[in-house]
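Batch job 17 of 40 flagged for manual review because the log was empty.
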Amino acid sequence: MNKFKLLLSTALVAGVASTASAQEQLEMTSAFGKNLPILGTAAVNFVEKINGISESVEFEHFDPGELVPTLEALDAVSNGSVDAAYTTSGYWQGKITAASLFAAVPFGPEAGEFLGWMLYDDGKTLFQEMYDANGYNVHVTPCGIIAPETSGWFKNEINSISDLEGLNMRFFGLGAEVMQRLGVSTSLLAGGDIFPALERGAIDATEFSMPRIDARLGFYNIAKYNYFPGWHQPATMFELLVNKDVWDGLDERAQRQIEVACMANITDNYAEGEATNYAAMVENSEKNGVQIKQWSPEILETFENTWNEVAAELAAEDEMFAKVWADLQEYRDGYKIWSNNIYLQRPR
């Protein structure tokens, strides 16, 4: 009997060792440093979630630049030099015209509406189709979302559209197309590169993210005027990219576990942003000398009219953009029947 128990114990240990050795190890680069609240913590939280529920796949988190720079992550995942990336598709605006429609849409859907289109309408299918159509060997999963961001930090007060003309500004995604039409020279910088550029005068103004995140990056030390609302990013979607060959090599259970971890991460990411930004706004105003400003109705109207012109031109130039834009607009037209009736319509 003892000999039998010994043999059984040995077999069980060998089985556990075999299972452990079969676990797929994936290296994941993040677009945001792990110490950056809401954005960076979301990537860390995803890794903790998936590693806590899966016995067949394990992710290892790497900060931007440790494996590849932020703006090179898509190519790195596609060619297999990196297994996965936690990022946002707006960073690929220069490569894929439609990319930012899955990240942040000026005057577009807020978080709930965006998730409805992505998860229960055509958004997720079109998201994958966009990457496939452009030759990228990646599998995409929505994996985070945040509410509106601030729309800019400026060194001087902006009282009219003419005050924007001639500024050099860091700007993200499709909103940058609008600002360029209004005389602003824009550049897309990763988060860690923005403060040095502001400090040395390479840019005059910037937008990046939510007040708590921007406070961590110290923009208030240089630019004291913080403008709202975030017309260019009413919500921002984040993605998990996995090399397609790696994804296809995972068993179905591991794939579903990754999707479940991303769904949980969406909730966590959204809640953290909603819960923690007001304190940063209070501190910015009372301690850091920041003036919280609202765009005038006239300036917002100019932004929106310019965006409509940009969207129409991009749809005319790019077939994939046109397809996604038409689908999103159709969804939003239907959504209005719900939102205009069920939600309180508060004046600004």
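Reviewer: the log was empty due to a logging misconfiguration, but the result itself is present. The two ends are 79 Å apart (CA to CA). Unflagging and moving on to job 18.
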